[in-house]
Structures are given as C-alpha cells and as structure tokens.
TrEMBL record, chains A, B:
<dbReference type="GO" id="GO:0000976">
    <property type="term" value="F:transcription cis-regulatory region binding"/>
</dbReference>
<dbReference type="Pfam" id="PF00440">
    <property type="entry name" value="TetR_N"/>
</dbReference>
<dbReference type="InterPro" id="IPR036271">
    <property type="entry name" value="Tet_transcr_reg_TetR-rel_C_sf"/>
</dbReference>
<keyword id="KW-0238">DNA-binding</keyword>
<dbReference type="InterPro" id="IPR001647">
    <property type="entry name" value="HTH_TetR"/>
</dbReference>
<dbReference type="Pfam" id="PF13977">
    <property type="entry name" value="TetR_C_6"/>
</dbReference>
<keyword id="KW-0804">Transcription</keyword>
<keyword id="KW-0678">Repressor</keyword>
<dbReference type="InterPro" id="IPR009057">
    <property type="entry name" value="Homeodomain-like_sf"/>
</dbReference>
<protein>
    <submittedName>
        <fullName>TetR family transcriptional regulator</fullName>
    </submittedName>
</protein>
<dbReference type="InterPro" id="IPR050109">
    <property type="entry name" value="HTH-type_TetR-like_transc_reg"/>
</dbReference>
<feature type="domain" description="HTH tetR-type">
    <location>
        <begin position="25"/>
        <end position="85"/>
    </location>
</feature>
<keyword id="KW-0805">Transcription regulation</keyword>
<feature type="DNA-binding region" description="H-T-H motif">
    <location>
        <begin position="48"/>
        <end position="67"/>
    </location>
</feature>
<dbReference type="GO" id="GO:0003700">
    <property type="term" value="F:DNA-binding transcription factor activity"/>
</dbReference>
<dbReference type="InterPro" id="IPR039538">
    <property type="entry name" value="BetI_C"/>
</dbReference>
Amino acid sequence: MVRVSSASAAEPSRPARVSGIDKIERRRVALAESALKTLGELGYARTSLREIANNSEFTHGVVHYYFRDKVDLISYCVRYYKTKCAQRYDEVVETAGSAEELAAGFLSKMAQTLVEETPMHRLWYDLRAQSMFEEQLRPDVAAIDQLLEEMIWRILTRYADLSGTEPAVDAPTAYALVDGLFEQAVVNYAADPAGARDLLTGRVEQVLPKLVYSA
Amino acid sequence: MVRVSSASAAEPSRPARVSGIDKIERRRVALAESALKTLGELGYARTSLREIANNSEFTHGVVHYYFRDKVDLISYCVRYYKTKCAQRYDEVVETAGSAEELAAGFLSKMAQTLVEETPMHRLWYDLRAQSMFEEQLRPDVAAIDQLLEEMIWRILTRYADLSGTEPAVDAPTAYALVDGLFEQAVVNYAADPAGARDLLTGRVEQVLPKLVYSA
DNA sequence: GACTTTGCTTGACACTTGTCAAGAAATCTC
DNA sequence: GAGATTTCTTGACAAGTGTCAAGCAAAGTC
C-alpha cells in the first residue's frame, strides 16, 4: 500500500486524539477526489484552486489549510490516483483460464475504462505531458508509468503463459505499444465517442498476438 | 502545400504593393518561429504572449498586430510546424534500396530528431493533450496526426515492399504503435537524455519486423 | 516636402491566479 | 458551560494574464 500521507504537506500539529490524523487524511482525500474531478474536466492548465473549491463543498481557503500549495495538492492527487488505476486488470489476469479468455477480458475492461473514466485518462496524458516541463511532477509521473508498465507486463506474461509461449518484446516496449494505442483512443474519444471504443479493441486485438512468439 | 496564411487573423487591409502581403506573412512566420521556441521550452500552459515577445525581437503589442488573439497565434504556430515535420523521413524512404537500409535510415533519423528537436516534440505531445480540453485546437491537432500517420504508413509500406511482403497492421494502428514508442522516448529524454536515444532505436528495431508479415 | 498609410511601442484596463492572514465558527477538553 | 484548539470563511494582496487603444516612428504616395 502506498502511503500517500507522507507527502510534503504542511502537516499542522496533530491533535492528540487518534481519529484526528485520520480525519485530516479523509479531508485530504475528499479534496483530492473533488480536485481530480475538476482536473479531469478542465485539464491541468485550466484548473485553478478556486475552481476546485467551487466544484466542491469547501471554500478556497480550505485547500490551503490542507495543502501547502498547488503543486502539493496536484502531487497528492496524482499519488492518490495512482493507487486506484494500476490494479484494474488484476482480476481478469487471475481468473482467466485461457489466452482467449484473458484477451477478451482485457479488451472489454480496457474499453470499459476508456468510456467510463475518460476524464481521468485525459488528465493522465495531460499530466505526463506537463511533467516534461514541470520537474516537480516527474517523480510522481514516473512512478505511475512504472506501475502501468508492470500492469501491462503481468497481462502479457500471463497471456504468453496461457498460450504456451513467451513475450516477444520487453516490458517497456510492450507498455509503450499498448499505451500508444490507448492514448490514440482517448484522443479520438473526444471527437468520436461512439467509434473510438470499437476501434481500440479491434486494434489491440490485432496487436496482442504479435507481442508473443507464435506458439 | 498548406496555405497557412488563410487563417482567421485580423487581416489588416492589405497595401497595394505585392511585397506587402508577403512582408506581413514573413513577420507572422518570424513571430511563429519565436513563439515555437518559447512554447517548446515552457509548454503551452506556461507560455504567455509577453514571454513570447520577450524572447523575440518584438514587443508584446506586435503580437496583437499580427494575430487576433492567443489562440490565433498558437493555431498558426501549429499549422506552421505541421508543414515542417511530416516530411522528415521522405528522403530516406525514397533512397533506401533495401529493407535493412530503410530501417537503418529511419532509426537514425528518428534518433536524430529526438535529440535535436526535443522541445518541438515535447510541445507536440503537450498540444495534443491540450486539444482534449480545448476544442479550438482539435482540428489542427487532428490534421497533424493525420499527416504523421501517413508518414509512418509510407515508411511501413515501403519497408514491406522492400521485404517482399505486406503490412500486418493498418495505418492508424501502425502510427499509434510507433508513436507510443516515440512518446515514451521523449518523456524519458527529460530524465535521461543519454540513454533514451539508444533505448528508442532498440525498441523500434525490435518492433518494426512485427508490423509486416514474415516474408 | 506635406500627407497618408503602415508598423510598432507604450501604458493601461479588467480579470484571474496563488497565497496568506485575520477572525468567525465549530469542536473538543476539562 | 468556560476555555482552548481545530477547522473553516472571508477578504485582501501582489503578480501575472489577454486585450486593447492612443500615439510615435517609419515608409510609401502624390
């Protein structure tokens, strides 16, 4: 489990009672969730602290009570987000009994998250781009990239296993390829929400077998 | 040839002489080039018109003399950029006499542009991400994506030709895959400028043969 | 050389931004 | 329930933003 709380926040002197620290943490999470919703809608650049506060039940001063500054908040959000996104396919990987079943489960889950969590994916690609310019974001972004790479790698190795063969590319390559397809789908989704889904599944389906040696 | 000038700019009433319109166009290009330099350095979000003017030989008022507003400028920049980037590999495609030669030329050119035009690539991925939030950018971004897809497709079909076979994926898929690898390299380049180059070439080398049917 | 058009500079405007601080409100402690 | 502590609200600040307009400089026109 990732300890999101050990961040670099102001850490106001903690109250004596045990529930206090948790309460603070819960407020942080609530703020982060609200912030993520706004961020996903508007993107990193256009999201101000006031906008985040407006779209939440809090006022803009509260943000500064729980986070040192904007980067601290965004950073926290990214780390919070991270803990939620990289285990999406784990169940599919564990329960699939054949390569076809795994592929089908992966594809359907992928299409589902594309549709249901579009804003989050948009935000992710935005943040990764921002990290190229804003050094402070790089560690967090790199950590998520790592997590996602491992996620894809788990899927691919299991897929190869079930096919009685081995991956034909290494982990970073596999991740870059699948991510390229997914990002394309996310970008296209803005223009054509209806078609993007099927195009994605079709393309991943096309590519997946090429990532392992033929059995 | 793309007519960049037919944009939506203010279009001040043109002087009678023929050189006048060209002079305006040349100023626009000069401003765009300066803006692109700043944009590549700072990214879309952090680049203000004043910053663009400061890093150029002009003052911030001139920008508004030649461009209606900020989006008009950025839009123009993107379209100007587009005309320069999608023909990078054309010479390699035309002169290569064998599949290996084509692959080698492609890889070396790709590595070269990664290193020499890093800011431009960063900016491109930034802009594409922004286009998911800013509708006005979408047409321009989509046009560039299209151009790049065709570029990759020219390379792949020629590569298949020279190998005496055919592409095993369609154009959008091929583009998404290669682009995934390239974007990963651009992001990594920020953290590790030395290693990113070789990692990219290695990975593309690994993948390229899998995009065509084995001869 | 006067006059008009074009090109550019400067300074201002309305607005948004992140940040902070003073104090009200709520909560806890005894 | 009084007092202390935590939590939150409100209003303000300086800095930065896009935009524009008034006026100066330069170039072209007759």
